[in-house]
Amino acid sequence: EGVEMWVMRHGERVDEVDAGWVEKSARPFDPPLSEKGLVQAFDKGVTLRAKGVSFSAVASSPFLRCVQTAHALLRGMQDEHTPIHRDYGLSEVLSTRNMHGRAPDFLSPDELAGGDQILLKRLEGWEVDGDVAPPSYPETLEGAAARHATAIARVAGRFGRNGKAVAAVSHGDAVAVFVGVCLNIRKDDVYAVPHCSHAAARLSGSCLSASSKWEEPDVD
Fold it and tell me: Hey, which residues does 199 pair with through a beta bridge?
């Protein structure tokens, strides 16, 4: 069978509900999830478990909100063992607006876990051999779209095995890119990507690349 790929957006960010958070933060480009965002990700996991979904691995953008989403998702699935791996290609669009005018730096596994030992255990495989370098700052929307398409194919090829699905937790633009690739439409024609929404599709054939042919996606 072909690889089954799930691409999901993170949950609600704290800066979306706390207007003063950006001003107070030393890392305004890297907000954590809000309490609602954590619940959204956990509930998504509960729903997927009820549908019989399981993942051989989860790849994540290095941004904190995506790692937190991946961990809460797996907790909702009652899965304490599936690792979370970094893929820099799944990063947010590194525009001056999104990064608040500065090149981002990325947290270490210890910093990402914040004392959560289960999450820290998941992150033992965080740094994958052959991982790509972080994207260059600043970048264009077009450059980020090409990067996301390449990263999704790379994650599917790297972790797709054992008849299980592969998940990539990223940002709204990456989900839109995947839907666009699956349906052969422009990313800009995907008008909205809600928090913790996903697109899931199976590879049509065996060739994995940024222009791989995927079956029509399930979107939720």
Answer: 7, 219
